[in-house]
Amino acid sequence: MKSSAGTETDIPLEVHDLSVAYHKKPVLYGIDVQIEPGNLVGIVGPNGAGKSTLIKAIMGLLPLTSGWVKVFGKSYKQNCSRVGYVPQRESVDWDFPVNVLDVVLMGRFGRLRLGQRPRAHDRHVAMECLEKVQMLPYARRQIGNLSGGQQQRVFLARALAQESDLYLMDEPFVGVDAATEAAIITLLRELKSRDKTVLVVHHDLSTAKEYFDQLLLLNMRLIAYGRAENVFTPEILQTTYGGRLNILSEVVQTLGGPRP
Amino acid sequence: MSSPFHPFTVRSHRWLLLALLVAVGSFSLPEPAAAARISDITETNIVDRAVRFFTMQDRSLRYALIGSLLLGVSCGLMGAFLVVRKLALMSDSLSHAVLPGVALGFLWTMTKNPFAIFIGATIAGLLGAGVVQAIRSTTKQKEDASLGFVLAAFYAVGICLMTMIQNLPGGSKSGLDKFMFGQVAALSQDDILLLGGVTLLAVLLIFIFYKEFLLTSFDPSFARSAGLPTQIFHYLLMLLLAFSIVASLQAVGVILVAAMLVIPAASAYLLTDRMGWMLMLSAIFGMCSGAVGAFFSFVGRNLPTGPLMVMAAAVVFVLALFFGPRHGIFARWWRHRSRSKRIQRENTLKAIYRILESEQFLDQSVSLTELAEHRRETIEEASHQLHDLKQCGLVTMTADRQSSVFTPAGWQRACEIVRNHRLWELYLTNAANYASDHVHEDAERIEHVLGEEMVRKLERRLQFAHRDPHGKLIPSQADIQSGGPTPRSSEAAVGYGAGPPEEPLR
Questions:
Q1: Whole-number Cα distances in Å, B84 to A93, B104, B270, B282
Q2: Cβ of B415 under 8 Å from any chain A Cβ?
Q3: Residues A33-77: pLDDT tens digits?
């Protein structure tokens, strides 16, 4: 980990030699990638390929064993206000005593000083974001009384309220209804039209090519990154999904010992 | 605000919290010179003791009351965060883990100095929390196992130390035994100062950093991704928790202080869906339980306070469980009951409609016997149901009390139910490919819950068809608004007037 000093650049995300391990067992190996601005990027790969791990590592939620990450030319910490995050839906307790508006308002907290209350402007932004995902009528609902798709939209609205330039979304399409899926796609296109960069962890190969401009194929290693039509080829998919990199995964097994 | 439980604005609960604290604090201001020690109080009569409690003539009595109120606030606030963070067990482990610290704090000064004990107990508590964290992050043990380990191990050490102190010369008079089950009457001025300081600190920190505590509790990874120092707030909360536990020990005791953290918060959780209100209610429940416990402890001649407070808190919990306005058992039962009564009324309306329909709406009234026959019930049952409909203004009875006639409202509801039923049957057969003899049972349930919006959708989807799969007419909007049945043959009338002619729908 190095080089926190840096100058602001247009490159939304630069990942250099990033490796991550859980309990000494490597999950990601030397990822090098530079994301181009203004793209919808799908992160695709089999189960356990480290897709969610990659975006968590980018945000510093997991310790890196090697490498560094730059967001718009600076360290993540310095530029975290330019990054919006949509975690997996199951990552929170939906019985938590908050309503929809409370959750969306949380998207504004990163912009406020410690101890500063959300202002009228923040409420206004939160309401607008709810409107964009068609959840305004549910603003006062307790979040547990929502369907899966509605919960996902609340999370999206919260990320929109962050008013960021780079968005990282962890499986937003899992367990949502068709209407929500369409709404998310519309939203992604809208973000792209405003020159935002969006990285989406996606598990559905059948829609990957259609939904995203660029794909990042991942299986512990970066297999390929590029325009969807260029990298969505049988050979690359075979490398990503087909037999694992055998020697690599064997070595990993010995490194990590038996699975816990 | 949408619910009856949130009558104020979002922010007002924080100010209420401060007001609460000021109110409690003002108790301690007046201080008459001549005050008896609590042990000097000699009244034997329960009524006398109760009067004495409420007039608060004695300083120690005032301390007891103030102490239990303060304890209620700090434990209530901390407990609310523990409950929503699913750390309720943490409070149990921490409270047992402080016991060796209490003993060591005593050994340090060889007196029951509240500050020494406070420091010792806090260190022991934080050590316990650290051990829990260390076990979880370095081994494959899950949180519950490490919590259980810390609880038992620290408590065992504490018990040994306490027994050793009891055996020291003068140790049996140390009053340390009160730390096990709590004795609010033994609170000294220093104890009150400590409790007040801790409570003030908790209220202020939660007041100032409410948004940070809220977000780091709800979604810690999101909080970290947004640049909030999530770990710091976690440790701050654990520190406040340790402070609250230690400051409350003298009044509630090691064994049951966890209950004062968890039970008021759990009761509040049953009653509200907003964190701010949960904090508020939890603090209020904590204060009530504390005061009631102190009262009974005094009236019952210094019974241990901890168990009494916890019993009071448990009563609050049971009351919330049964009588909560939205999630309470009673409210749910009541909603269920009124729903089934409504369904029964609607079924009777539907039966009357179908009897009229079978007579081509030539007759306006339906007799008791017809209804009983149709529904295969006794006359008494049918009469009972008609009475119910009459009470709700859905039918009127003829002069001889033997027949019933729809009121406009009753006619409208009957048409709607029949329409819902038949639309749903049609939908299942045409759109969901059910066999037409399988759809009746399903429609019997759905007809009562279809909203107008869904009905509109169904109508569009079914291209405004006007006959159900069995060939019966579906009441149209015009029928529903016509105010009452009009005679017609089953062939003449059309359902959705403007719809296309009947054809197989696909």
A1: 9, 33, 12, 12
A2: no
A3: 999 999 999 999 888 888 999 999 999 999 999 999 999 999 999
At A95, which amino acid appears? D
Mutation target among A111, A114, A259 for the B interface, most CBs of B within 10 A = A114
pLDDT digits (tens, 9 = 90+) for B446-476: 888 888 888 888 888 888 887 888 888 888 8
- Residues B17-52: b if buried by 16+ CB within 10 A, e if exposed: beebbeebeeebeeeeeeeeebeebeeeeeeebeeb
Would you tell me how many other CB atoms lie within 10 Å of the CB of residue B156?
A: 13
Residue B324 host element (H or E):
none
State how beta strands A221-227 and A197-201 pair.
Answer: unpaired
Pairing relationship of beta strands A25-35 and B395-397 according to DSSP bridges: unpaired
Residue of B nearest to A58 (CA): B225
* Residues present in chain A in total: 260
Residue from A96, A100, A112, A160 to probe the interface with B (highest B Cβ count within 10 Å):
A96
- CA atoms of B225 and A83, how far apart (whole Å): 8
Q: Which residue has the tokens 């701010």?
A: B276
Q: What is the pLDDT of residue A103?
A: 96
Q: What is the mean pLDDT of chain A?
A: 87
Cβ of B278 within 8 Å of Cβ of A141? The answer is no
Inspect the interface and report whether the beta carbons of A115 and B274 lie closer than 8 Å. Answer: no
Mutant choice from A99, A119, A138 vs B, greatest count of B C-beta within 10 A? A99
Taking the C-alpha atoms of residue A74 and residue A14, their distance in angstroms, rounded to an integer, is 10
DSSP A231-256: H-SHHHHHHHHSS--HHHHHHHHHHH
Which residue in B90, B77, B91 sits closest to B204, CA to CA?
A: B77
Q: What is the pLDDT of residues B303-325, one digit of tens each?
A: 888 889 999 999 999 999 999 88
Look up the pTM and report it.
0.79
The segments of chain B whose pLDDT lies below 50 read 1-10, 30-37, 39, 490-506
Q: Can you list the alpha helix ranges (DSSP code H) found in B32-177?
A: 46-55, 59-84, 88-97, 99-109, 114-138, 143-167
- Give the integer Cα–Cα distance in Å for B350 and B344: 10
What is the structure's pLDDT at A128? Answer: 94
Name chain B contacts of A59, Cβ cutoff 8 Å.
224-225
Count of other CB atoms within 10 angstroms of residue A184: 22
Inter-CA distances, B147 with A89, A212, A215, B91, B441, Å: 28, 46, 44, 10, 52
**Is A97 within 8 Å of B226 when comparing Cβ atoms?**
no
Distance from CA of B221 to the nearest CA of A (A): 7
Contact B222 A85 (CB under 8 A): yes
Neighbours of B344 (CB within 10 A): 13
Chain A positions touching B14 (Cβ under 8 A) are none
Distance (Å) from the C-alpha of residue B227 to the closest C-alpha of chain A? 6
| Coil vs helix vs strand at A224 | strand
**Rounded distance between C-alpha atoms, residue B385 and residue B394, angstroms:** 11
Using one digit for the tens of pLDDT, what is the confidence trace for B257-286?
Answer: 999 999 999 999 999 989 999 999 999 999
Which residues, in sequence order, are CB contacts of B440 under 8 Å at separation 6+? B425
Q: How far apart are CA B434 and CA B196, in angstroms?
A: 69
Distance CA B96, CA B98 (A): 5
